Sequence to fold (93 residues):
Amino acid sequence: MLEMRVDISELKKEGSDLIKELAEFLKEKTEVEVETSADEIVVKGEGKKVSKTYMRVLLRKFLHKQELKEYFRVIGSKDNMLIVKERKISEEE
Fold:
């Protein structure tokens, strides 16, 4: 069984409802077990539905759907870890 972790500590500032929606979105798309803890979402399952590439695509889709793509990005970390990171927005004056 594969386990993929998604660090959502920075996304959490947007509200707990968003995190619940993300967990539901991942569960619906991957059809595997999705657990939510304080700072991360853990997706457990078999095969390609839990691959890092597929998870990254799903996270990007979710951010786009929630119109947060301009504020957050998905980056890879250790073996089975993805991080939803806040973008550094340069202020132009």
